[in-house]
Structure prediction request, 1523 residues.
Amino acid sequence: MRHLESRQALQDEDAVLFRPILRTGGQFYLVAAGLLAVALWGFYAFSQQLRYGLGVTGLNRPVYWGFYITNFVFFIGISHAGTLISAILRLCRAEWRRPITRMAETITVLVLFFGLGSIIMDLGRPDRALFVIPFLQYGRVQSPLVWDVMSISMYLTASTIYLYMPLIPDIALLRDRVTGWRRGFYRALSLGWTGSPRQHRHLEIAIAIMAVLVIPIAVSVHTVVSWVFAMTIQPMWHSTIFGPYFVAGAIFSGIAALIITMALIRKVYHLEDYLKPLHFNYLGILLLVMTMLWFYFTFAEYITTYYGSAPDEMAVFWEKLTGRYATFFWAMVLFDFVIPFTILAYNRTRRTISGTVVASLSVVIGMWLERFTIVVPTLVNPRLPWSRGVYFPTWVEISVTVGAFATFTLLYMLFTKFFPIVSIWEVREGRERGLREVEERIREYLPGPARPEKARVSPEPPLVR
Amino acid sequence: MELSRRGFMKLTVLSGAGAAAGYGGVALGNLTEAASQDDRVPGGVERWVTTGCDLCSGGCGARVRLIDTRAVLLEGNPLHPVTRGGLCPVGQASLQLLYNPDRVKGPMKRVGARGAGQWEPLTWEEALRTLADRLRGLREQGEAHTLVALTGRARGIVPDLLRRFARAFGTPNVTDASGDDPSSQALWLTQGIGAPIAYDLENAKYIVSFGVPLVDGWWAPVRQMRALVQVRQGTPGRRGKLVQVEPRLSPSAAKADEWIPMNPGTEGALALGLAHVLVAEGLFDRRFVAERTFGFEDWVDESGRTNTGFRSLLIKEYLPSKVAKVTGVPEETIRRLARELAASGPGVALGPAGGQSNDRETAWAIHALNALMGAIERPGGALVARTAPLAQWPEVRPDETARRSLAMPKLPGARGDEPLAGNSFALLADALRSGAAYRAKALLLWGANPAFTEPGPGRVRQALSEIPFVVSVSSFLDESTQYADLVLPGHMFLEAWHDDPPPAGVPYPVVGVAQPAVEPPYQTRHAGAVILSLAQALGGRVAEAFPWKEFKDVLMASMEGLYRSRRGMIFAKQEESGPPRPLREWEWAPLPYKSFKEFWEDLVNKGGWIDPSYRYGEWTRVFQTPSGKFEFYSRTLRRAVEARARAQGKTPEESLAALGLAASKDQAFLPHYEPPRLAGDEGSYPLTLVTFQLLTLGDGSLADLPFLQERLAPHANVQWGTWVEINPKTAGTLGVHDGDWVWVESSVGKVKVRARLYPGIAPGVAAIPMGQGHTALGRYARGVGANPMELLGAERDPLSGTPALATRVKVSKA
Amino acid sequence: MAEAKGTPRWGMAIDLDRCTGCQACVVACKQENNVPFSSPEEAAYGREMAWIRVMAITEGEYPKVKTRYLPMLCQQCDNPPSVKVCPTGATYKNPEGIVGQIYPRCIGCRYCANACPYQVKDFNWYNWSGFRWPQEMRQSLNPDVSLRPRGVIEKCTFCHHRLQKARDQAAIEGRKVKSEGEYVPACVQSCPAQAMFFGDLNDPETTIAKLARSSRAFKMLDELGTEPKVIYLKEGEWSATPRE
Prediction:
């Protein structure tokens, strides 16, 4: 009885979280149609590439990689928004995570498709993409690109599971609320979830295991992405700090992407009650830390190059700092450090949602530029002095890139139409159990009289041990 | 309302997604189709045929790899004694000429307006009948001399046949587009022989090249590349030196040990400056000068007048300080160079390559320098090539009509007997327009494209459109052929017999014989056979002059001379590997053949014949001058001027003065410096433009080979285009950056090209390569780059009238 | 020259003192290996293809300027950076040290092209083989070398098909391929200045093995440890000798 009551109360309380799924307004279709148009345009551009070959891009000799590989690294970086942050926050039992984990995890899963897609788009023979599978096909495990393939597919699998598992209770909630074909859809996906304590316990253990597993996988993903570059002997690619540098950059851009997504969802779905300035502030602090970390890595990377003064490296170095890519480089510094640092370092600006969003937009742009200034200037300045490349993307690459962003946004929108973008049961759990737990935990931290008494320990099993 | 709008939008979204999926399917289908496309090249039986490359005057031996009937590779003939298996990029790319999709596939006649490019095919019989009728008409009207014949090449049996035809037909107006090499004028002035100087490069120890593009397309490029190796690495412990003197760092200058930049067209002054140092410091070859030369010291002629000698002229006029001002080469460098030349002897001076109005004087001064060094008829020096003992054809007996026409004066520009007469189609074109003694009524173009290759092609085009009847024997519809009434396509070189006459510069005779390797796929005929058929159609004495059925008969008739000479040898393997053997006297066993047939078969299979011996110092053969010596003071020239004056009814002095030479009367017959004439005033046109040929494009007839269009010149890094090289300093003052489009404008025209900032060119000089800017020819050449000839034609050599390939220009951002 | 002892290690030497930058090797290679030609637009975009190129670099300021030529082809490294990174084994090194490319296996990721410090791998940007050669010109294609489809990397193979032919011939005669002179790539064969040499580096008696020991010999980017089998010989220098 109590259960039913609370459920009713919950329904009233969290109705706003169900609304996007149950009702779709004309505005949604308008935006979706717009995004679809852009996506179709990108698709058309890609079909031109399939038809005529990579000749339709701006790639050439020696600039064999350009927008697509930049996008690849960028998208993979964004993917760290979700699973990694969500997992870390879960493991740290940061209670404020509850409304944002789902959003973050969704970004990861969806954006990874675009990361992988970018590689396939970049292939001269996308029809042979599966050749890279080791053992079954021709895949050579010695190739960093194959590491990438393995690592990303593992990450994609793990992230999908990690997104799906916490979704199950929410899907069950939906199953009970809808009719028609959707009921069957949700029933199938809910895997017979009844909400029994046993199921809860199993779910929580599974989530905990995945949260632990997913962290090393996520770190490995961006490490091997960086190794695609670092394992060559090309100037300013062949760098030992590329692994951590890329991982830090990935988390950096991931947080930024998450903040932007949160702000949009908050606005569109009226979730002001769930996503409070506090969430933005906390993530803003994380972003501030990453900004400084990013600066540290960048500084370390460039200062060692500069002091080493190897001529081949310096050619790339100066190309970035003062040459043809100076605009990109200094824009990167501006967007990745100057703007976000300035905004985030001050409480007054960081504690506003618009402040963190502006900082995040800046970081997302800056990190794309960072990927670009890593990929292209090296290729433009090969070791041997006689060929100096030029690279301008063509309409195809720009269209495909814009199309990819549009498709991603569209898919994300569609996701919100099928699944609650805020984890309802976790929010509920936070209300019902989190409060108590946090109090107990804090008591545990504290010395002396604040120590918890045995009697006050909850009779229910703890979330994670 | 709300629902229907949503429904509509849903529909839109869904149908959009559906369309995308459908399109994606199509695109993927395309990809898989492309992937599965069967692109196997058909195989077949492999066969190698010995032949020769016919694309320049280098005469490289070649062998072609055939798969069944397809030619798939051209390689150097390893038996060829001069090239030993080497073949330049042009030869390597030549299959793209053979299999060019834009070849003329059969005889055609013009149906539209001239230059409109409207053609109608006809049979060879019709075409030859049309041509013969037209020519017969000229003879019947006693106007045989109004036929002008222009051949694209000067040497070999086909041009000889054409000259023979002209003589039998009765026209004195035959010329070749190649013009005269300046060195042959120098040899004529000093040694009385109008042939290119044969440089004994392989044995040289010190070479000063006055702008000669030794390794980029001059004379016989492969031989010269090999010779350079020989000079530097041929003798252990001794490395020869190549000094390149020219305004730009050409590929040859880049390969030289030293590049001395200088003002364009002042090479002659520098040569005389060097001569001055040799004389002033007593470094010249006293014995050679004393025994074998004429006009070194002051001398008294028959009339008792004292003539200035070369020594006095040098001492008085060509002080290094003065020369340094003219040439821009520091005085110190001049002195050092002269001393090095004398110390490292035998030194030899080469040049110039041609292109300035003062080429003759420059070549003369350079060759005089050779004489001072005693580098005449000495190993590593300047030689006179021995000729090949080809059989002489029976004498032509022109009939009465022909004799009367042959007596008519030549049109200016038609090749004369002495090198002073101009040999230039540009000049001829001017004469045609300005109406000389008579107007040309018919023009035969035998593989020539003057509307592209001549300076000031606009005037040539005008002249072509004014000649009533133009016939072009050409494999492509090039710029000149556009003006033709009749197009007769010739065989391509791998489809036909041809001979490779001894290349210019090789001291001993080498004769290549090339057999056809592939069946001609189109309605084409041998260019030589066309002459035979034409003569046959005209009948009478004209036909009698050609007692051969087909071109192979002519070839065999000529080659029989080699067999009869009982000298030389058929190409054979060289025992030792490495560079070609230095030139040396040789003992010969007589040719081991029982009959000419046997000789011929071996000749064809091996690719040619050679007599690689040279006897230095056959003075009577090499000095065919009035004095029997090397003449610093050119009596040969004096005679020619006197003859010309007599013909014009003037005194020699008046005749000389009318030419507007800068040299004084005393100097005119001595090697001297004549400043280059550059059209345009310095104020409006501040830069001096020099033009140069690329190994890859030649005069432009190779522009239709895509393999070569990609490989124009590594130093410029330009593909499929034309560029102008300017010094970064010059560019700075013009505000021009590397890769900018610029206008290069002379007093007669302008072209749009890309700027290449090149530190290897003197400030104040601009250089443009020739060979691009085709408006016709073929799909790979048309519309690519610009033709610098459009800038030229305003200034000429005062004596011969040959237009200069240099001018003043201004460069501005386009 | 004697037969090869053991497994040969094919190598090339290029004497820069002899090389005149004429590019005969480039054209010979393109003709022999069915390498497609470009159009003006493609060339302007950097899509022109060649397995060997003559590179020129101009240094200095007027009037002290020097231009140097250097034919650049696959260096056939013993430790090839391209082979290491290839995800499918399309780029591989065979037992005789020749770095090859398996076109049907290449996925066109261009990783090898980026990893190669010599910039000698070319990519098929377009569907060349389908339309590049007009029908007439297709006649001059070499049947020994397959046409590459669009979207794959291609590279110098030291004219591997010529090695196969030489092997066949040697097998018929019951011997091994000679260590010099019998198997020669098209570029070496064509060189007008005889600046290129080819043979078995493992046989100390070959010209190339001797040249490799010359004091003029150097390898491109030797410091990277790629161990090239293409050896360059420096240009010589003239010095004035006193009069005797």
Notes: The two ends of chain B are 61 Å apart (CA to CA). Chain B touches chain A at residues 2, 5-6, 9-10, 12-13, 16-17, 19-20, 23-24, 26-28, 30-32, 34-35, 717 (CB under 8 Å). Chain B has four domains: 1-38, 108-180+396-507+521-562, 197-384+620-634, 687-813. The longest helix of chain B spans residues 2-36.
